[in-house]
Specification:
Elements (H helix, E strand, L loop, with lengths): L1 E4 L5 E2 L2 E7 L7 E8 L4 E2 L2 E2 L4 E14 L4 E5 L3 E4 L5 E4 L6 E8 L7 E2 L5 H11 L1
Antiparallel strand pairs: 1-3, 2-5, 3-4, 4-11, 6-12, 7-8, 7-9, 7-10, 7-11
């Protein structure tokens, strides 16, 4: 498995991504393990074929464009519907780790957008509690 540091263009804070498996002629889903240090998170993004997150350690916060932020804990599963603008990452005080199962449509699995600002993140974390 290939691991790398999350690109600062699409992640804030310390993030490690491990590619578990890719798509092939029998599978249109890829899988990756994503480890977020406290306060680390993704940029806003959408998925053309959806995404499922399985929480394996700590807590993962997921926020949507309409201001809803949810907290998921180890063993929880989060569904990221097709085309919904969202972000996900760790809370302020503990790391969060999830497996991301990401669908692929027309060769694309994600559309990255602007980064979530510190102010947006702090407000989302506060509103989720």
């Amino acid at each position: 498995m290939k691991s790398f540091k999350g690109d600062a263009k699409i992640f804030s804070g310390e993030v490690k991504v491990t590619l578990m498996f890719g798509t092939n002629e029998n599978r249109n889903v890829s899988g990756g393990l994503v480890e977020f240090s406290p306060k680390a998170r993704s940029a806003w993004h959408t998925h053309p074929a959806g995404q499922t997150l399985i929480i394996v350690e700590g807590e993962i916060y997921t926020g949507t464009e309409n201001g809803i932020t949810q907290i998921a804990k180890k063993g929880d599963v989060i569904e990221c519907p097709v085309g919904v603008k969202h972000w996900h990452g760790a809370g302020a005080t503990q790391k969060g780790v999830h497996i991301a199962l990401t669908g692929v449509k027309d060769g694309q699995n994600v559309t990255w957008l602007e980064k979530l600002s510190d102010e947006e993140y702090e407000k989302a974390i506060k509103n989720a509690k």
